[in-house]
Design brief:
Residues 50-145 form the Methyltransferase domain. It comes from Nocardia jiangsuensis. GO terms for molecular function: 2-polyprenyl-6-hydroxyphenol methylase activity; 3-demethylubiquinol 3-O-methyltransferase activity. It is an enzyme of class 2 (transferase). This is Class I SAM-dependent methyltransferase. The chain has 217 residues and is an alpha/beta fold. It has one domain: Vaccinia Virus protein VP39 (Rossmann fold, 3-Layer(aba) Sandwich). Helix content is 27%, strand content 27%. The protein has helices at residues 14-23, 35-41, 58-65, 77-90, 129-139, 171-178; strands at residues 48-52, 69-74, 96-100, 112-118, 141-152, 184-195, 205-215. α3 (58-65) packs parallel to α4 (77-90). It is globular, with a radius of gyration of 16 Å.
Length: 217
């Protein structure tokens, strides 16, 4: 789920919207892993990972290259097929399972040593749905495992007219929405600002939050 384009018409499904989004472009994302995930998970021992909103596969391919067994989930089959091709070209296709799920209604089964949710902001989501997805993400973390959530704090600084209305959660709201008990340890709870140039090369920055939690029991 991403937030860099106009809101969809009300009469098409989430899957149709994102399939069209990816089908209209040969490449949407850079192919590089999200820096937040690299920073927080780069030193973790490889195990099983769940990548939520896997897009064109940058994060899943990076994790697989480190030795993780990855279940990569996206609502768009177009994105999943493209990502599978990238993974095969990178020589890690056998370490990744690609699965189509609309996380608003359908969540993958199982427990994982790492669950990654990078920028799950969807203009198709109803109020409270993101919190519900992240709570299910926390429930999928095995004891001793990690949950890494990256969230935008607002639109890029160069954007004068946002393409649609969206309320970005604060770090505190992300934590409150998870409603976790004391069986979790906060590893990282940070606000960061990064370079975020515009599509025409405009200079700009964007603020994000990082929440890395470890499940103790």
């Amino acid at each position: 789920m991403h937030d860099h384009h106009a809101a969809p018409p009300a009469d098409i499904s989430t899957r149709e919207h994102w399939d069209t989004f990816y089908r209209d472009r040969d490449q949407v994302w850079s192919g590089n892993p999200n820096p937040i995930l690299v920073r927080e998970a780069g030193a973790l021992p490889p195990g099983t990972a769940l990548d939520l909103g896997s897009g064109e596969g940058g994060d899943a391919i990076w994790l697989a290259g480190l030795g993780w067994r990855v279940t990569a989930v996206d609502v768009s089959q177009v994105a999943l097929d493209r990502a599978a091709g990238h993974a095969a070209a990178a020589g890690v296709g056998d370490r990744i399972t690609w699965a189509a799920h609309d996380l608003h209604t359908d969540f993958p089964a199982g427990e994982f040593d790492l669950v990654s949710a990078q920028f799950l902001h969807s203009q198709t989501a109803q109020p409270g749905e993101r919190d519900a997805i992240l709570r299910r993400a926390a429930g999928a973390v095995a004891v001793g495992g990690a949950l890494v959530i990256g969230s935008h704090q607002g639109w890029p600084s160069w954007m004068d007219e946002p393409p649609f209305a969206h309320e970005f959660p604060t770090l505190e709201q992300v934590q409150q929405g998870l409603a976790l008990d004391d069986g979790w340890q906060v590893v990282t709870a940070d606000l960061i600002e990064r370079d975020a140039p515009g599509p025409e090369g405009q200079p700009g920055t964007r603020a994000d939050s990082v929440l890395h939690l470890r499940r103790l029991r």
